Amino acid sequence: MALMSISMSNFLIKSPNPQNTHLRFRQGLAIPHKRSFGIGHRTGRILCALIEADGGNLVELFVKGDLRDLKRREALEIPRIKLSRIDLQWVHVLGEGWASPLRGFMRESEFLQTLHFNSLRLDDGSVVNMSVPIVLAIDDKQKQRVGESDRVALVDSNNNTVAILSNIEIYKHNKEERIARTWGTTAPGLPYADEAITNAGHWLIGGDLEVIAPIRYGDGLDRFRLSPAELREEFVRRGADAVFAFQLRNPVHNGHALLMTDTRRRLLEMGYKNPVLLLHPLGGYTKADDVPLSWRMKQHEKVLEDGVLDPETTVVAIFPSPMHYAGPTEVQWHAKARINAGANFYIVGRDPAGMGHPLEKRDLYDADHGKKVLSMAPGLQRLNILPFKVAAYDKTQGKMAFFDPSRPQDFLFISGTKMRTLAKNKESPPDGFMCPGGWKVLVDYYDSLAVPENGKIPEAVPA
Amino acid sequence: MALMSISMSNFLIKSPNPQNTHLRFRQGLAIPHKRSFGIGHRTGRILCALIEADGGNLVELFVKGDLRDLKRREALEIPRIKLSRIDLQWVHVLGEGWASPLRGFMRESEFLQTLHFNSLRLDDGSVVNMSVPIVLAIDDKQKQRVGESDRVALVDSNNNTVAILSNIEIYKHNKEERIARTWGTTAPGLPYADEAITNAGHWLIGGDLEVIAPIRYGDGLDRFRLSPAELREEFVRRGADAVFAFQLRNPVHNGHALLMTDTRRRLLEMGYKNPVLLLHPLGGYTKADDVPLSWRMKQHEKVLEDGVLDPETTVVAIFPSPMHYAGPTEVQWHAKARINAGANFYIVGRDPAGMGHPLEKRDLYDADHGKKVLSMAPGLQRLNILPFKVAAYDKTQGKMAFFDPSRPQDFLFISGTKMRTLAKNKESPPDGFMCPGGWKVLVDYYDSLAVPENGKIPEAVPA
């Protein structure tokens, strides 16, 4: 198939004028089946057509098939570090190149640049965005076991070798400083900090990562876990001349759908011929009261089945990153990772990656800071930021519509709390709020929680 | 006099090869007397010879003499905001261009970039370092008084108009987030936070600053308060072809002197003909247990009088900034401000701008992080960072010398605590630790504290 020769950066500034391109509007599956790929052999071709990965080349850190056994044997000879569930998700993220050009868990220089500057300066002087620390904590005993070794094996909970970390550097894990600089608070109750930092070791170990084999979860959702290289292949296969990414960790309602459809319309108006939506739910660690990934994926499937979104111009895939809930800091990570997957447009909502303050009765972040910080972030200048328009239920039309401030009385804001209460009570939202199939999934989810062991129904979070 | 035509940036990489320069080795005063200058009329010439100010032009925000009365009258017609002592120091800092290219108290976009990126992106896409927020807090009542006005008058404690702030923007002051992102902790007991943030208003007001007249403190030290433009003039007058800055807020002992002398020697070896030292004690707010500015200045004068430092190649001046004690974040500010004053070399010590953790028995920052962060900081690439060599008392030589790890038994580390205890007890340190005149000042200072009102002797901090 023909490849596009133009650069996709800065499209909002300069409208595309594709020359010598023969776009093929192949009707792709909305949800491509996972195929088994060799590593990296296609990226050269794909990168020509889409926005360049950070650092110029998409990093993939998987060991080639014929070397895997060798590496597994090598791993038996070196000190081992057991990975937590979240550590494993970061191995997945690093291995597939979502954090390109990062080639492993951060060493101190990368950690410090991330904390202080939300960006990394590369050897050639260029700057890439990197806002959340991707680090591996070890405790005193593990550090002692590593001793003078310059490499360690990373193993999963069953002691299977997952990866090798080489040219390692061990440095202090100042948890308070890490939390303060990442979240802008040290209040106890930050979900990621509670889960992965507070009780973690006092050392961090960085190095070059070699991942033995692609990470699989065996939860029936692996087919959605497309790597950046696979997504890039899919976008090229569909002849996308713009890719707009929508990060989410909540059910999709018709307000979201309206926004995504409207974004495509705007991109077409700007001169793009085939903008493709990357509907990209986060699949790593989320806090207990978020709707679990499996239920969200069911809901997203229904939304596509019901035709609310066009399967021909939508790719649904899972973003394997754990969630920090670090607001303006984290939204940069969410955007940067999607550049690596080929997206040159990023839709940003109100209070992205935000949550309530753990101790105070207020949102942790100003709802507008995410959008503002994203628009000013180092290394993200070539990504086009599309601020979320506010959608609400228009009673005069009986459907979700963009809020019209000239007639506020006509609009009903259905908050996350309201949606949750309705679904828990098996009540229906107004017609047109969410497609019936999607709504039923949500009702079924809360139904499944009805008689939990402790007798308490977990609280869901606002959409 | 002839001006040098070469750029002074990146001298560590490329040795200078001055062409067509006629350096004049005029014997300048170590401590120049303050002269009265018009505003900005010399900067064009001076900038040619020294490292460029951040953003290309040194900003000076003073109202020209003939317009002052007009501005004072204007100020009577607009809402007033009373400045704290620290606010006034920031007006001083901004007015003289230490924070160039900042033209006033930060608006929200500058505040957010400072907190998240420690740098500002300028309209031309270039990046300057800016690591500490320079902001003005107001409370609800003040905000109400400002109302719809687009400008305010800033007045001192005697209600004299100090400045006018125009095109104002008022935005939320999230103190917790500001403190967490600036200090990497929110522990109570951070001196600057206790003094200037915790009890400050819940709003910040940014805008364009016009300072009516140069800030004077009337404490006998104003002659040392040279602006960046005045320092640049002095360096040019002395024919400096390199300026190396040494930030300090403690008495100078012979270890410091050795370091500064050695730095000059190294710069001469590198091919510079006349490196000049900017010995630049911080003159703004410091915590209660630091040695006060007036005593430090007396001590520094003695050091120069006693010939420990060469007055001909040393300029002693006061840096008007308040102290944050924010370690790796603040050291960037200290370095960046000195670029604006013409310094192209910056000496960085162990744990710069550090202090003990307010609650825990440890240093707040890793002693090496300041140096590391400084070397990687955005916008500071053109500044040459000179890491501090460790000096200690060499018992075999009876003087301060660079520590030789091959014979540790010969060295005596005289900590700040030790120095303080000796001075308090009117004991003498080993010969050669500090010049006798300087030591006497220190003893006199502690003597002056001997019978304070509350009967307690304040603790001094380690040097």
Automatic annotation (TrEMBL), chains A, B:
The keyword Protein biosynthesis does not apply. Keywords: ATP-binding, Chloroplast, Nucleotide-binding, Nucleotidyltransferase, Plastid, Transferase, Transit peptide. Residues 52-212 form the ATP-sulfurylase PUA-like domain. It catalyses: sulfate + ATP + H(+) = adenosine 5'-phosphosulfate + diphosphate. Residues 223-444 form the Sulphate adenylyltransferase catalytic domain. Its EC number is 2.7.7.4. Transmembrane segments: none annotated. Pathway: Sulfur metabolism; hydrogen sulfide biosynthesis; sulfite from sulfate: step 1/3. One of its GO terms (molecular function) is ATP binding. GO terms for cellular component: chloroplast. It is found in: Plastid, Chloroplast. One of its GO terms (biological process) is sulfate assimilation. InterPro entries: ATP-Sase_PUA-like_dom, PUA-like_sf, Rossmann-like_a/b/a_fold, Sulfurylase_cat_dom, Sulphate_adenylyltransferase. Belongs to the sulfate adenylyltransferase family. This is sulfate adenylyltransferase. It comes from Stephania yunnanensis. The lineage of its organism: Eukaryota, Viridiplantae, Streptophyta, Embryophyta, Tracheophyta.
